[in-house]
Amino acid sequence: MTAEVKTYEGGLNAAGLRFAIVCSRFNEFFVSKLLGGAVDCLLRHGASAKDIETAWVPGSYEIPLVAKKLVASGRYHGVIALGVVIQGSTAHANYVNAEVSKGLAQVSLESGVPVIYGVVTTENIEQAIERSGCKAGNRGSTAAETAIEMANLLRVLPEAK
């Protein structure tokens, strides 16, 4: 005898959903390509351009604060964080990456709004090029796809009692 199991999944239809995208100005050359990929993905999945808003911050470290403010507005079904951190000769990138990922996870968990980590972390410029639209795809696009799926999943999950 096979029991029927209730399964919840989020679709990839972005029609009627609103998204904010927080972008780091540091390494803007790469981040603008990630932003292009994210916007293209949202539009291809049915989002309206009027339902997509962007905010630019100085660097990736500042992304969680702005993501928190955007989530608190109650205007968005998802927030997408985009940045590029390239490892230099010091451990600075490791600290930035750890704090950004923790900060975004905290905002998402506290708010119940998907806050998607689309920060590319690489060892060198060549890897940044590959992950912002070349051989390794566009991380902005995959982050947007994740945001759509999570926003839809949260809409179909049962409410807490």
Radius of gyration: 16 Å
Could you estimate the helical fraction of the residues in percent?
A: 40-55%
Mean pLDDT across the residues is: 94
Strand tally: 4
Shape: globular
Gap between N and C termini:
31 Å
Count helical runs: 5
Strand order of the largest sheet: 2-1-3-4
**Structural classification:** alpha/beta
Largest sheet geometry: 4 strands, parallel
Question: Which spans have pLDDT < 50 for at least 5 consecutive residues?
Answer: none
Approximately what portion of the residues adopt beta-strand conformation?
A: 15-25%
Give the helices and strands as they follow along the chain: EHEHEHEHH
Q: Identify the quaternary structure here.
A: single chain
Question: Overview of this structure, please?
Answer:
By secondary structure, the protein is α/β, with parallel strands linked by helices. It is 45% helix and 18% strand. It contains 5 helices and 4 strands, in the order βαβαβαβαα. The protein has helices spanning 28-44, 63-72, 92-111, 125-131, 139-156, and strands at 19-24, 52-57, 78-86, 115-122. It has a 4-stranded parallel sheet, with helices on both faces. Strand 1 (19-24), helix 1 (28-44) and strand 2 form a beta-alpha-beta unit. The radius of gyration is 16 Å and the shape is globular. The two termini are 31 Å apart. The model has no long low-confidence stretch (mean pLDDT 94).
